User: Fold this.
Amino acid sequence: MAASSLTLLSLLAIVLLSASASASNITEILSGFPEYSEFNDLLSQTKLADEINSREPVTVCVLPNGALSSFTGKYPLSVIKNILALHVLLDYFDAPKLHKISEGSVLSTTLYQTTGNAAGNLGFVNITDLRGGKVGFGSGVPGSPLDSTFTKSVKQVPYNLSVIEVSKAIAPSAVLTAPAPSASAVNITALLEKAGCKTFASLLVSTGVLKVYQSAVDKGLTIFAPNDEAFKAEDAPDLSKLSNAEVVSVLQYHALASYTPIGTLKQTKGTITTLATNGAAKYDLGVRTAGDSVSLDTGVDSSRIASTVLDSTPLCIFTVDSLLLPVELFGKAPAPAPGPAPETSPSPSPAPAADAPAPESAASPAPVLSPPAPPTSSPAGSPSEGPTADSQNSTSDNGGGVVEAPAVMKMVLTVSASVVACIFLS
Ligand SMILES: *[C@@H]1O[C@H](CO)[C@@H](O)[C@H](O)[C@H]1NC(C)=O
Ligand SMILES: *[C@@H]1O[C@H](CO)[C@@H](O)[C@H](O)[C@H]1NC(C)=O
Ligand SMILES: *[C@@H]1O[C@H](CO)[C@@H](O)[C@H](O)[C@H]1NC(C)=O
Ligand SMILES: *[C@@H]1O[C@H](CO)[C@@H](O)[C@H](O)[C@H]1NC(C)=O
Ligand SMILES: *[C@@H]1O[C@H](CO)[C@@H](O)[C@H](O)[C@H]1NC(C)=O
Assistant:
């Protein structure tokens, strides 16, 4: 009970914290326009919708149904995603602004540019005020045709989100012909080693969990790899005290059975299941976003996502700056002293993993030093489980609010239990 009530509270805190930053929901907006249903479906399938929702200002250049049909049958989803990403401009353009472009022509950065795979000007779109009041769109690559034109405004939320319709897909051949990466061909351990996660990579190999990861890749896999610093941290648990099966669970806990890029994590409300999740044990993770920073809450500790190693549908690899300790294995540790909340991290953007000192784990007093609890058959949510979220000083065994909670949680506790229930059920 304690753990689930606390999880519920942290969940609510997440909802409240993210509410202030809540942007528009592109999926919902476009669902009011059946003529863009294909485009809308593709935004959801590729998870670009989440990316759009987590950014502002942003302009989405939608295409009417049928305009993408020459591509959808012919190219893999990863290529379609790149094409769609070219239709997401990281600036606000509405009709008046399009007709007032200074010098008559501008290059706008697109979401495709943020993938890091765009050579030269490939990640830019050229918007040019043409004669006769027309506005042309084309690839930013010099000499590209401006053969897609602005046809109409669809929806504006000044000056954060603009949805406009364009006549034709912007699909430069270099994007279409770029070799589609084969996820199963990615050498996960090589990537992890290069990203400063050698210890994690060698554990994956020695335990055989790498094979579990590899067999999951094609259906979507997201890996949260603790960097080598995380294993050396003072408060890092001694994995040699765990049984082999427990180490396997810990490693499986560091991955999700879905393609979940950072934009999707930012839009996640509540908890997500991991590869370690099975009928008997939850092994889930809470996700918390503060600005550009995303943290994962295990119920025992909190770990910040430090960098993106790979984001290539259907595989995502992130580094995290401390080990994710599942409450199922580490929940019986003594109540840890309060540590600084992860969202107070001063760096606005994720730091590179390898050389960044792990801010939270370094600054927090050791949350878990004791050996893990012996395996028990008690399901997740048993009263013996440890504190959750921000290393609260829990003195309670029933989650009845006897928790040293931050102000927001205290407030929540007194607000209304029914609100909690509503949000939890929604
Ligand atoms: C956006 O709206 C869609 C459809 O209404 C919904 O399924 C989805 O959960 C919403 N996304 C967010 C982040 O609220
Ligand atoms: C946009 O494309 C046109 C036609 O190719 C070109 O003349 C113009 O310089 C381009 N604009 C920018 C900002 O690169
Ligand atoms: C636009 O974004 C700003 C900054 O995030 C926010 O304060 C504002 O409420 C947003 N406006 C609308 C209409 O959503
Ligand atoms: C992957 O890379 C590692 C080195 O990091 C190497 O030992 C291993 O043989 C590679 N695996 C494959 C299948 O190429
Ligand atoms: C935790 O709570 C106990 C009992 O209320 C108290 O004695 C102790 O000082 C608290 N520890 C911290 C670090 O706040």
